[in-house]
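Methods: example folding runs. The two proteins below were folded one after another, and each record is reproduced exactly as written to the output file, sequence line first and structure-token line second.
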Amino acid sequence: MRAEALKGHLDGLLLAALEAGPLHGYAVKEALRARTDGRIDLPTGTVYPALHRLERAGLISGSWSVSGGRRRRTYTLTPAGHGALGGERAGWQEFARAVTAALEVGSWSATS
């Protein structure tokens, strides 16, 4: 999937990946890849800055842990994040309906 198609939807995708429970940054990236059968495979250079931005906005909270001798930041959806995810889903559904309507065969009529 082209990166341009995801613009404006990154926050919703990341919030959705965290809906099932806490994940560290790389696991968020992998959850999205797995959930979409590899169609969405975001670069880590996109995921981590977005997670930091969502944390600053109060939509996710992060905490440090050690796993296998490595420090990892684990992220959890906050109540505000749950609300934002609902808004992202509603916005996406509206957008998808509009684009589907515009792309349907026969949805355009010639005017003269």
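Second run, written to the same file directly after the first:
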Amino acid sequence: MSQEVRIEYTETFEQLTNNLISFMAHHMEEDKAIEKMQATIEHFEDLVKENPLAVPLSLTLLDLGIKTIREYKYNGLRILYKVKEQEMTTIQCSVIISQRQDIERVLVDHCILYK
């Protein structure tokens, strides 16, 4: 891409990141959980900075009629994001969860806790 890609992280993304680190810390050292998150986010950023559309649309969310959210999977985690259509140079990351977690369930639980 000729223009620099900007990546934004929502408050929801940050809250889910902290929740996921806390959960993973029960199964591994907290430092290792943080390293895993950082490695996943860095790998994601490297990929989408080169091509924001490289990642496929989320099939789970497509089934719900949501056609703008892409689902990046790596290292046992997944990041849900959208490319802002007007700009094509801004990516908004909304959710990070484990690949084992149910997307719908996580979003409902998050809305109950934080909204």
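Comment on the second run: The longest helix spans residues 30-50.
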